[in-house]
Amino acid sequence: MTSSALSWRNGAKGLADALKNLVFPPVCVSCKKVGSLLCTDCYGRIQWLSEPLCPQCGRIVADSLSICYVCRKRPLPLTKIRAATLFADPVPQIIHNMKYNGYHALAEPLADLMVKAWTQWQFNIDLVLPVPLHPDRQKKRGYNQSTLLTKHMCRQLSLPYDLEAISRPRHTSPQVGLNAHDRLTNVRGAFRANAAKVTGKNILLIDDVCTTGATLAAAAEALLAVGAKSVSGYCTARAM
Ligand SMILES: [Zn+2]
Ligand SMILES: [Zn+2]
């Protein structure tokens, strides 16, 4: 596309957005104040994560010199897991609306949080992949929130991503309400990775929330089994 065609398209999109906002002004998903999807007051309540964190799973620890007691007991197949924010008010509400209430536009401000926190984590990666949903769940929801987060984040950071390098052919029940052990059993073997796309590469998996890391671990196992060099995980929010 030529630059003038591109700027015309951007201009038209800007006009369309302005008209849409005039008719349906955006409302803060957390406090319902009119003006933006996430108002400045609610944005100010976000709890950002920072070191010291467990070098592997990203749990908050007193010092990050060695891996935490959970990782010592059950080492993760991932090099490291990091998240932009704590899974605490107002983030759970925003993520819930993105996933279950059809507000897929919220993937943009959520990906922005991941971009803002990005540089401090020092990931060494070649390719970014969203954690896939089972096709039936994606069809029901209409989108995969992790794919939207991946696209928005990678475009801003100029990172290469692939939406088909890993799939989820086995249906699993939701992880909510399961303990750490049952979460692992529930998702083990659920993923299939495409060797041609991932062999020899340092992979970064993207998901919205990390709780025990079981889903990321199962996806990482599938990637490592076909020759990925390393797998790390990056989420919008970390439940502690
Ligand atoms: Zn608000
Ligand atoms: Zn740990």
Can you characterise this structure?
There is one protein chain. This protein has 240 residues and is of the alpha/beta class. The chain folds into 2 domains: 1-45, no CATH class; 48-238, Rossmann fold. The chain contains 10 helices and 6 strands. It has helices spanning 3-23, 40-44, 69-73, 91-100, 107-117, 135-141, 145-157, 180-187, 195-198, 214-225, and strands at residues 81-86, 127-130, 166-167, 192-193, 202-210, 230-238. The strands form 2 sheets. The protein has a 4-stranded parallel beta sheet. A two-stranded antiparallel ribbon has the order 3-4. Helix 5 packs across helix 7 (145-157) and helix 8 packs parallel to helix 10. The radius of gyration is 19 Å and the shape is globular. The N and C termini lie far apart (46 Å). The chain binds zinc ion (ZN) (2 copies). Residues 28, 30-31, 33, 39, 41-42 line the site of one zinc ion.
Write a concise keyword list for the protein shown above.
6 strands; about 40% helix; binds zinc ion; Rossmann fold; 10 helices
**Spatial order of strands in the largest sheet:** 1-6-5-2
Poorly predicted runs? none
**Overall pLDDT score:** 91
Gyration radius, to the nearest Å? 19 Å
Main structural class: alpha/beta
Bound molecules: zinc ion
The helix count comes to 10
SSE pattern, N- to C-terminal: HHHEHHEHHEHEHEHE
Which outline best applies?
globular
Q: Let me know the largest β-sheet.
A: 4 strands, parallel
CATH topology group of the largest domain: Rossmann fold
How many structural domains can be distinguished in the coordinates?
2
